Amino acid sequence: MLVSIILPVFNAQPHLSRAIDSILSQTIENFELIILEDGSTDDSLHYLMSLNDPRIRLFHDGLNRGLSYRLNQGVMASKGKYICRMDADDIALRDRLKLQTDFLESHPEIDLVGGRAVAFSSSKMILGYLPFAQTHDDLCAYPWNRIPLPHPTWMGRRDWFISHPYRFPEVIRAEDQDLLLQAYPTSRYHCMNDVVLAYRVGRYSLKSSLAARYNLLKAQSFTFFQRQQYGYLAMSFFVFFAKSFLDLARCIPLIDRYIAGQKMIPLTLERRESIENLIGQP
Fold it and tell me: E strands within the chain?
């Protein structure tokens, strides 16, 4: 088995079919899709149990254990040489698996590779590229801020995921940044310039945003103090307070639209049209 795609699911029924179809229609076939149903209260499980494809392995126990638990469960259940992340409301481009497996095959020094992601809203409006850096050094240049390697675009070697499990109890809404932060001194990351994913952005939530920032700050504080990186520790507090202030300002709709727009990188017209065709399919 070449690739194991890990897809956690919690109350995602409206978008599940698009996400799963985008994986099943990939240009390579040597993969398994591991779906981890996390105690949904909508019709997600009913839909998942109706699927009939030998490449799908469905795990469900009726319990809500959280994202980190399910991701670790998926890693341990995987049979692939590589492990790929996927969220239940995103859409993978058809050549995603081929692009990323080809890259890892030809770059044995890289442990974890991501790709560019185009963000779109629930109303199917294209918002732009997510923040991007390519090389390991550029990605990890400001660890007190964040490491811009979008979680749903990750693909890495199974041995790396085994050696670097997600923390449990999880760092809520910041489990990806926590893992990257813990592993970057002894790992090598890369982000491909190729677009591999259309990333769905939900409605802005002040509560969720502040929770993510607070939990990330706790993880950063623990790590930087342990490593005696006191300058990084101070900068992480500065970033936390500055971005929390902006989060509060985003409660004003006009400011929210401006800040959201500043976070995204514009697309070319050709790329915008191709992504619109992808997400606009029925």
Answer: 3-9, 31-37, 56-60, 82-85, 91-92, 112-121, 126-129, 155-157, 189-201
User: Terminus-to-terminus CA distance in the chain, angstroms?
Assistant: 31
CATH classification number, 3-279, choose in 3.30.70.1400, 3.90.550.10, 3.30.43.10, 3.40.50.10400: 3.90.550.10
Inter-CA distances, 237 with 173, 214, 216, 219, Å: 18, 10, 10, 12
State the angle between helix axes of 230-249 and 253-263 in degrees (0 to 180), rounded to the nearest 10. 140
Q: Which of 8, 146, 158, 182 is nearest to 80 (CA)?
A: 158
Cα–Cα distance measured from residue 105 to residue 107, given in angstroms and rounded to the nearest whole number: 6
Token couple for 281: 């399919």
Q: How far is CA 20 from CA 6, 118, 174, in A?
A: 11, 18, 24
Q: What is the pTM of this model?
A: 0.95
Rounded-to-integer distance, Cα 59 and Cα 44, Å: 13
Mean pLDDT of successive 10-residue segments in the chain (282 residues)?
96 96 97 98 97 97 97 98 98 98 98 97 90 96 96 98 95 95 97 97 90 95 97 98 93 79 82 89 46
